[in-house]
């Protein structure tokens, strides 16, 4: 996205332009406040409230300024001597925004089929581990060559319980997903026509 921010507007004799300039300056002032808070939070590792909702402009920029994007800011100034105040204000704004640190993260697009396949592979791995533990207990494997303490027996029992619980959870997720897909297929299928008989005797 490309966003072109308006510059600060000076007061004019035109009523409509004055009202528009007021809104622009208010939005830019709020943006400056947001940038200052973000810069201070980054510098001091704080999480103070950021006033995004104080203007429409900052509400629109909130997803990007919250860290879900990579942002490049280009600040332009007027080299004319009569614009020293505006140029200084722009440079100070650039200095503040340079201190803001965002940590953009790539969003993972979840493919349902790939996710279900991952669940199935995890179930196979968990069942394999569970079978190995059960076989070790039944055959008196290396773990049981010495007598297990009460604590070790509890840990072993808890580990097997967790494996079983995870297998049940993944199986339920797979079945739920398949049911949802089947229902979607039924909704897209046109309904069969039905024959309806009306009792007309009261009207005859």
From TrEMBL:
InterPro entries, per the entry: Kinesin-like_fam, Kinesin_motor_dom, Kinesin_motor_dom_sf, P-loop_NTPase
Coiled-coil stretches noted in the UniProt entry, renumbered to this chain: 109-136
GO terms, molecular function: ATP binding; microtubule binding; microtubule motor activity
GO biological process, one term: microtubule-based movement
Cell inner membrane found in the keyword field: no
Keywords (A to Z) from UniProt: Coiled coil
SUPFAM superfamilies linked: P-loop containing nucleoside triphosphate hydrolases (SSF52540)
Segment forming the signal sequence: none
Annotated stretches, region: Disordered: 180-204
Domain Kinesin motor residue range list: 1-100
Family: Belongs to the TRAFAC class myosin-kinesin ATPase superfamily. Kinesin family.
PANTHER family xrefs: CENTROMERE PROTEIN E, KINESIN-LIKE PROTEIN KIN-7C, MITOCHONDRIAL ISOFORM X1
Name of the protein in its database record: Kinesin motor protein
Originating gene: P87198
């Amino acid at each position: 996205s490309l966003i072109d921010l308006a510059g600060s507007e000076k007061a004019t004799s035109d009523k409509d332009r004055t009202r528009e300039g007021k809104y622009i300056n208010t939005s830019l002032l709020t943006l400056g406040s947001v940038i200052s808070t973000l810069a201070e939070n980054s510098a001091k590792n704080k999480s103070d409230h950021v006033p995004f909702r104080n203007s429409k402009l900052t509400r629109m920029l909130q997803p990007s300024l919250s860290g879900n994007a990579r942002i490049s800011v280009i600040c332009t100034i007027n080299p004319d001597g009569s614009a020293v105040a505006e140029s200084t204000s722009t440079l100070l704004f650039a200095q503040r925004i340079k201190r803001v640190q965002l940590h953009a993260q790539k969003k993972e697009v979840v493919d349902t089929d790939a996710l279900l396949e991952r669940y199935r592979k995890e179930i196979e791995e968990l069942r394999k581990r569970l079978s190995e533990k059960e076989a070790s207990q039944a055959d008196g494997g290396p773990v049981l060559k010495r007598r297990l303490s009460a604590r070790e027996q509890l840990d072993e029992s808890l580990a097997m319980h967790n494996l079983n619980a995870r297998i049940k959870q993944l199986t339920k997720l797979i079945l739920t997903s398949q049911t949802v897909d089947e229902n979607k297929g039924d909704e897209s299928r046109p309904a069969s026509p039905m024959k309806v008989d009306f009792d007309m005797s009261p009207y005859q």
